[in-house]
Amino acid sequence: xxxxxxxxxxxxxxxxxxxxxxxxxxxxxxxxxxxxxxxxxxxxxxxxxxxxxxxxxxxxxxxxxxxxxxxxxxxxxxxxxxxxxxxxxxxxxxxxxxxxxxxxxxxxxxxxxxxxxxxxxxxxxxxxxxxxxxxxxxxxxxxxxxxxxxxxxxxxxxxxxxxxxxxxxxxxxxxxxxxxxxxxxxxxxxxxxxxxxxxxxxxxxxxxxxxxxxxxxxxxxxxxxxxxxxxxxxxxxxxxxxxxxxxxxxxxxxxxxxxxxxxxxxxxxxxxxxxxxxxxxxxxxxxxxxxxxxxxxxxxxxxxxxxxxxxxxxxxxxxxxxxxxxxxxxxxxxxxxxxxxxxxxxxxxxxxxxxxxx
Length: 358
Ligand code: ZN
Ligand code: ZN
Hints:
The structure is a single chain. Helix content is about 35%, strand content about 25%. A 6-stranded mixed beta sheet has the order 4-3-2-1-5-6, sandwiched between helices. Strands 8-9-12-20 form a 4-stranded mixed beta sheet, covered by helices on one side. A 3-stranded antiparallel beta sheet has the order 7-10-11. The protein has 2 domains: about 130 residues, Creatine Amidinohydrolase, Chain A, domain 1, CATH 3.40.350.10; about 220 residues, Creatinase/methionine aminopeptidase superfamily (Creatine Amidinohydrolase), CATH 3.90.230. By secondary structure, it is an alpha+beta fold. It binds zinc ion (ZN) (2 copies). One zinc ion binds next to loops.
């Protein structure tokens, strides 16, 4: 899977003759080639796309990058020389660069060596990446299925005495075991009072009876991320825990019901936030309802209070309201949805009713 042609089609609209891609996520989106390192440059002109990398990756790149000329960068003929060669060959006068990612020093370096005008053009990639095509959706669903398989199995390990770190390690193991290329972020496992911190780091704390355990995790499959959160109780749940759980689930359903193409991200966020506020927990919902998911775990568009732009059809966003009561407990439930005309599709299959493990 690559998106050289899609990027090429946007060059005119962005007022550039070519696009230079150095950021790992954008290079992956453009080329479909995932490297563990930071090396490599993709360059898309009107006539042709290029992928330049060094000796460590050239063999894999030549094998995996299609629809582009794959060329080796060497100390004698480095990226600047390759870039100037292509610029000359294709008569490129303006080059779009990733103003949201490139460092000031890198830009200075390019500007001093490259014979073309550099123009900020991150927006070209952001807009393209926000709308997923069929192949991308397939990868996203594949990543989700792997995470769900890990979830179904981790339930056997959640019991009184097991630690948060042990569960986090097992989730990582299970996702890799079932075909993930990587985790999409370090799994979050938070129990009891730790659960009131939305992005808690797993600790050596053992799980105790009567606690919630929140697990937020995901993996990478064919370059694309999954993201999911489930909160389960161990032993028993108090009436208040059940009430908060129900509130969060209702809020998630309200947000999902509001999500469709053309509706703003903030309208989706507000639909969920209202349910939580009406239940009296408004001050404990402290983050956005959702974020875009793709080659990066957090990308555009967002379903947050400040995202006033309409969500486009084909956008993939998380649906993850939560309630966090400091020093006591927290609940978050997270699915990922695909925005469509007139509604959305929840790509998750894992049950969401409150689960109380023995
Ligand atoms: Zn998550
Ligand atoms: Zn998320």
